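Minutes, methods subgroup
Present: GH (chair), OT, SY

1. OT presented the first of two proteins processed in the latest run. Sequence and structure tokens recorded below as shown on screen.
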Amino acid sequence: MCNFNKKKNIQTISLFLITFNLFIFKSFSFCYIMPDFEVHIVNNLPKNSAPLRLHCASKDTDFGVHIASPNKEFYWKFCINFWATTMYFCHFWWGRQETSFEVFNTDYYSSNCVAKDKLLETCQWSVREDGFYFGNKLREEWP
């Protein structure tokens, strides 16, 4: 009878540890071992043009629709997830033009953002009349 109780206790503890580990890995991100990231969307469109509307989101986070005035920016801070599959996309409207694309995915942007320091990397997008610049490179054009 004593061996049965020990076995049952070991099984209960094992089940608890497995469940606890799954919970930790589900909510764990690389925040503790990797730098945070900031994505900045800067409106560099002409001053007297139509407003820039944008809607940015990921699988887990929706920032809603925002209006960025000329020379103003919209930004957010995050850390990549445990599986390094973090991705954000934005939908943009400017006058009669609209487009949408990924503004961050771990594969490309995490290695091309600018390190502010050891704890933060900045990913800078500039919205201009001819398209969308990541850093100084034209990455997406208005359709």
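2. SY then presented the second protein from the same run.
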Amino acid sequence: MNYRTDIHLLDLPVEILFNILKRLNNLDVLYSLIGVKGLDCLARNEIFTNTLSFGSTDGGEDSAIDETKLNRFCDSILPQIHNDVKSLVCDAKLIDRILRAGVYLNLTQLKITGYLDNTFPDICTVNSLGDCFYLLDGRLMQLSSFIVIIEEDEDYSPMEFNENNLNHLKCFSLTSKSITNEYNNQIVPLLRRMLNLQDLTLYLQIKKRHRIVDGIQLENDILSHLSKLQRFVFYISTGLISEHSFTRLSNDDIQRTFTNFKFGEVGWTMNDLNRCLIRYHIFSLPYKFYSIEAVGNQFTNTIYKNVTAVWVSDSISFEHEFFLRLARCFPSLRYLNFAYGEAQQKISVESQHNDNILFEIVEFPHLKTVIFGRVHIDYVEEMLNESKTRLPCLTEIWVHFDDLKSVTNNFTRDATRINCLNLKNLVTHHSSNNNNDDDVDFLKRQSPDFYRYFPSLKL
């Protein structure tokens, strides 16, 4: 029996060709067959164009496309098939080039990888509000769900963006990890474009205003423009500034602004940051977010079971009772940052390092990282002294070296030893005679007592 040895792909039945090509990566099919006579039409089938996944070009383990392929896709292939793309997975480093290569009018799912440990459909981590506007400038008109996380400090963008309504968007979440000045100029106009929005999540820290964002402001600025909204989850803090003395808003004042609020229970609190700045916080209950900023002495006794990261700051000192409340209200706390704290008032100079005085012990069973920023040495004592606080999981602290040395009595004090036993990472601020002296070199020159005090430390 004679067999043909010159069979070409075009000689195969279409069904067999499809079965072969479906076993390949869609990018490989498009790169190899777009523009090839007789096979181009097969490559343009929705099986290969509806879902595209672009990995990194850095040669990493998850790399899906090299630079040569990327150039051809952006210059030639994507401009031909962009209307057929419905699902797009893209490494964060490539998102700008990929989106500029086409107008994805039928895109319904966007996944951007490379910023988070875990990636989810429709999540995008960007550097500014300008980046968010860029992604929503009209090229993703069919997008129905979009989650944006803003990482960096710079939120102003002088660029002009498409301001058409986003009629298909049903679910939108905006989390800004930095303080913004653009609530009125950028955020409110963006939200008003989402006429059919049903689910809205906002985590915002507004830098400085002369009026807080309260229930009335939310209704007038946002909610009255979103008639189809069914669910609203939020945390919004506002820095209220004044050149003169404040007339502080009471809990009743804030509560009255939410009299006609339709989206469940609301919590609120405030704290003094300095003589001319007070920060007010309003949030939906139960609290859904994993962090909360600028917690002060007057925070409400709500149980924030989801919160793992807290920043504390107040012009009024934090006494021992504050930490008892903090531990009760934040049972899952893993990260604590002291942004600012005055000297404690109830601890006399004589009793501060007296290990025989009895305190009700504060327990943070999950706390791993403590950062001592612009705070008095009292808080290093408060956290490390096991007669006041127990930290069984503490593995990292950031602290001024002189404060640490003083509180631990030059790394010999037993009362602070237990909380330091599991420390693996120690970041210190210190005065060194050598300007080129880094933290590791500085710590390596410490005494044997230092190393015995921190047996788990990794240098």
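Chair's summary of item 2: Residues 57-63, 115-121 have pLDDT under 50 and may be disordered.
Next meeting: continue with the remaining queue.
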